[in-house]
Specification:
Blueprint (H helix, E strand, L loop, with lengths): L8 E4 L5 H12 L3 E6 L3 H12 L5 E5 L5 H15 L4 E4 L16 H22 L8 E5 L13 H21 L5 E7 L2 E2 L10 H7 L6 E2 H12 L10 E4 L6
Parallel strand pairs: 1-2, 1-4, 2-3, 4-5, 5-6, 6-9, 7-8
Helix pairs in contact: 1-2, 1-7, 3-4, 4-5
Length: 249
């Protein structure tokens, strides 16, 4: 059976767990060689790498702090040096911090780091990869349904970071369109991961808010990313795809 991504190289940032690891697996199953980045979980990242190799592809983990622009640029360079190319970039690494705008007790440093990871890290990765990516490449960023809605107080900063990713996506689609490089965003809703398990204190409310009445899975997000990375999605760019169970319907 032909694998639609065979011969391609993908970089998935934050690929050591959760949605990132599921995306890495989906791309490897479709035949892509896969690089993943991690900030601290080396053992988990290496475990994912061994799993990916089981699909018959090349795989390697690279340490990089997504909040550090030098490390992000170095990550892209290291992946190209090791694999020879990058055809697919998945900006998955992200952090979540809540804080109401009037609350003087907020840890402003944490909020600033969230912008560094969720916005500056994504922008830096795209700027670093664009000159090195062959025509016809794929750039996919993992946003959040919070990029277009803030259902609770204290989400403004996080929503702003994810809204920025969607805005960048539309602009970058114009910038890179002449080279056939597509740029899209996938916006998950409530997804069952170790960072946001389906049995947390908000789970019942979140599940009831979706049209399907349940949490999604990391594999369901990964399937959307794999589609956008494949040849069937060659005429989709500048788009935002919600994988949210209808929470924004």
């Amino acid at each position: 059976m032909s694998k639609m991504l065979e011969g391609k190289v993908a970089l998935v940032t934050g690929g050591s767990r959760g949605i990132g690891a599921a995306i890495a697996r989906a791309l490897a199953k479709d035949g892509a060689d896969v690089a993943i980045s991690f900030a601290a979980s080396k053992d988990r990242a290496e475990a994912v790498v061994e799993e990916l190799k089981g699909f018959g592809v090349r795989a390697k983990a690279f340490k990089a702090d997504q909040a550090n622009t030098d490390e992000v640029s170095g990550l892209v360079a290291a992946v190209v040096s090791h694999f020879g190319r990058v055809d697919i970039l998945v900006n998955n690494a992200g952090v979540f911090v809540m804080g109401q705008v009037h609350d003087r007790a907020n840890n402003v440093g944490e909020l600033d780091r969230m912008f560094d990871v969720n916005v500056h890290g994504v922008a830096t990765a795209v700027r670093a990869v664009a000159p090195l990516m062959a025509d016809g490449g794929r750039i996919i960023s993992i946003g959040s349904i919070a990029g277009e809605m803030s259902p609770w107080a204290g989400m403004a900063d996080y929503s702003a970071t994810k809204g920025a990713v969607s805005a960048y996506t539309r602009g970058w689609a114009r910038d890179l369109g002449p080279r056939g490089i597509t740029v899209n965003t996938v916006q998950p809703g409530p997804i069952d991961t170790d960072m946001s398990p389906k049995d947390n204190e908000l789970a019942e409310t979140l599940s009831a808010s979706t049209a399907l009445g349940r949490y999604g899975t990391a594999d369901e997000v990964a399937a959307a990313v794999a589609f956008l990375a494949g040849p069937q999605a060659s005429y989709i760019t500048g788009a935002t795809l919600n994988v949210d169970g209808g929470i924004a319907a």
